[in-house]
Amino acid sequence: MCFSTGHMCEIVDGVNDIRRVARERFRKGAHALKIMTSGGVFSVGDPLTRPQYFPEEIRAASDEARRRGSYVTAHSYSVEGIMMSIENGVTCIEHGNLIDEETVEAMASRGVHLVPTLAAYDAMDRRGAKLGLNEISLAKNKEVLVRGQEACRIALRANVNLGFGTDLMGDLDDDQLRGISLQVEAIGARETIHSLTVANARILGDEKLGNLADGCYGDAVVLDSNPLDTPEALYDVSQHYCVVKDGEVVDRGGSLK
């Protein structure tokens, strides 16, 4: 079993239990809900392609989120899991490595977002064995690793709003910027910048994030060179000048005057 207890995750079965837990999470300050609608890499006993909930259970979570002015995002890899998610109110898919053209067309028609997490599979492929990751999970990781970048390209061709995430934590937390380089490899610097900014703001439901127009928050990372010409500026920390938050410099990483 993977992440089945604690402040992050909880095993929930049945419509009534899902409604109870959803309300409890919002009462405690959650911004949104994440559910697991297919198997995972870390979890040993559930195949990647198997759906995890019945439609009515997914609808219960989506209904509770909508009543709170929020949304549900779903961990899902397989076509079946993704389709069941989006047909029952989920508005964002995380991972989505095993999608196909028909699936992304359905996502696009419903305005469902996709957040790839390319860094996670790359990091586990390189470092998982040393960290004690079991053989079943390593094999699962290989399966999704080879499909992740192509999934990004398939989604973009269908005009799915493509965000950015890493899904890294714990011992792998220091590999975050690798996710940016992998997304650049998959879809180019311009589209990656869009994913990091405007696309993620749309997913979060706050378009004052992700741009520098009048009335927005004034958050920015100032770089040493134009990433459209020098993509590594997005993930090479030596080219980082400073971080601006709410219009104020909060981290001066270079020689910006």
Account of the 3D structure:
The chain is an alpha/beta fold and 257 residues long. It has 2 domains: 197 residues, TIM Barrel; 39 residues, no CATH class. Helix content is 40%, strand content 12%. It has 9 helices and 7 strands; from the N terminus they run αβαβαβαβαααααβββ. A 4-stranded parallel β-sheet has the order 1-2-3-4. Strands 5-6-7 form a 3-stranded antiparallel β-sheet, with no helix packed on it. Helix 3 links the parallel strand 2 and strand 3. Helix 3 packs parallel to helix 4 and helix 5 packs across helix 8. The relative contact order is 0.09. The mean pLDDT is 92.
N-to-C SSE string, H for helix and E for strand: HEHEHEHEHHHHHEEE
**Low-confidence stretches at least 5 residues in length (pLDDT < 50)?**
none
* Strand line-up across the major sheet: 1-2-3-4
Radius of gyration equals 19 Å
First CA to last CA: what distance?
Answer: 51 Å
Helix share, percent: 40-55%
Shape from CA axes? Answer: globular
- The number of E-state strands comes to 7
Number of domains: 2
Write out the CATH superfamily name of the largest domain: Metal-dependent hydrolases
Total count of helical runs of at least 4 residues: 9
CATH fold name of the largest domain: TIM Barrel
Helix/strand-derived class?
Answer: alpha/beta
Architecture (CATH level 2) name of the largest domain: Alpha-Beta Barrel
Strand content: 5-15%
pLDDT averaged over residues: 92
Largest sheet: 4 strands, parallel
Q: Give the CATH class of the largest domain.
A: Alpha Beta
